[in-house]
């Protein structure tokens, strides 16, 4: 059977699948790589190897690939590999797509009904010597962090019994603990949630099992030094939906947000709070902290569906006006019997995305800065030279100052789109915000990608260095920096 992507509108032009692996030593560099910058930047990416079985499938159902930029002594090497999942192996043998619509096993070829549907295409994270490539419908894929060789689908040596594992676990910078959760933890369309705490050596310290009030996507979480926070979203599913052969999710504008808060030390019960439907699109969290009896969460929150590949439950079309979140602060009073929370808008009237990061050394603690991928109308984008793209181009990184409400901006070119930013501290003990923001930029006019490095304290100056690749890269979901 021939391979033909011509009928897939999400796989054209710059966004056509790469479908190859590569190694480049001594990458071309413009500018000067900061001498203190020493480590590896990993990216998990979407890259279909075969056209999808269904025309309405989402790009999030693409095969997983992992990229690595290794930086040392002013030099950069690059490597990219596909994840050798069970899906990859089966489809490679068949020379065609075998797995069906996004997270709907009933639409796959019967020959793969008993195989893992894992793609590992969402988030990389280094833990206890393994690079974990995560997809929230499956256990982690364990990868060698040096060679990028796929090792196995990993269940923490049998300690993790849930069927799924979040794409956004939290690595506590003070204790080294990995804190994670699973939703639909007993299988598709189940209401079960599991929460885990693993110590720095990967031993399971504590776990909880409980039910969610809604059957929804629960993509991210937050932690403080004392609490775990897990929000639901307005993306819902049902057994009936899956039996009908549909994509896993639909957005229901009537479903309110629910937030579970757990004490990390196991001293109390899970407490659920309920908000409103216009708070139900919190996809990624910024950071959280506990102050006395209050849990305070900052996050980008949208008021409507911002996934054009997941349909609205009421049959209405996708409205781009609901895409841009504003930055909100939710305060939960644990000393009160209230079941809702107070909301404050920190940054409004912006065109940000939900791709937000902080200085990971301040995870779960008081912090000042966050870094977000944004569509900045003040920064020119040359659509004619940039390929006449029909999509919104995220062309800037913004630094939010949560203390005084100001925004600093980085811009890398009039034909460039950016991926999620990653903050890297100048050194281990550097003050918060002292370091660099790094990430991949796509030059649509040249059909090439580059790693750009920006001084986090002088973002308006743009890149201090560009690591230019001789080809375009896959679409990144999330990245992870490992020092040293």
Class from helix and strand fractions: mainly beta
Q: Could you say what the CATH architecture of the domain at 155-349 is?
A: Beta Barrel
Helix percent band: under 10%
Main CATH class of the domain at 155-349: Mainly Beta
CATH topology of the domain at 155-349: Lipocalin
- Biggest sheet details: 6 strands, antiparallel
Low-confidence parts lasting 5 or more residues at pLDDT below 50? Answer: none
- Strand fraction equals 35-45%
**Overall morphology:** globular
How do the helices and strands line up, and which of them pair or pack?
Blueprint: E1 22-24, E2 28-31, E3 39-46, E4 64-72, E5 75-82, H1 86-94, E6 123-127, E7 130-134, E8 141-143, E9 150-153, E10 170-171, E11 178-183, E12 192-198, E13 204-211, E14 222-223, E15 227-231, E16 235-236, H2 239-243, E17 250-251, E18 258-263, E19 271-274, E20 287-291, E21 294-301, E22 326-333, E23 342-347, E24 352-357, E25 369-374, E26 396-401, E27 407-411, E28 416-418, E29 422-425, E30 435-443, E31 448-455, E32 463-468, E33 475-483
Antiparallel strand pairs: 1-5, 2-32, 3-4, 3-33, 4-5, 6-7, 7-8, 8-9, 10-11, 11-12, 12-13, 14-15, 15-18, 16-17, 18-19, 20-21, 21-22, 22-23, 24-25, 25-26, 26-27, 28-30, 29-30, 30-31, 31-32
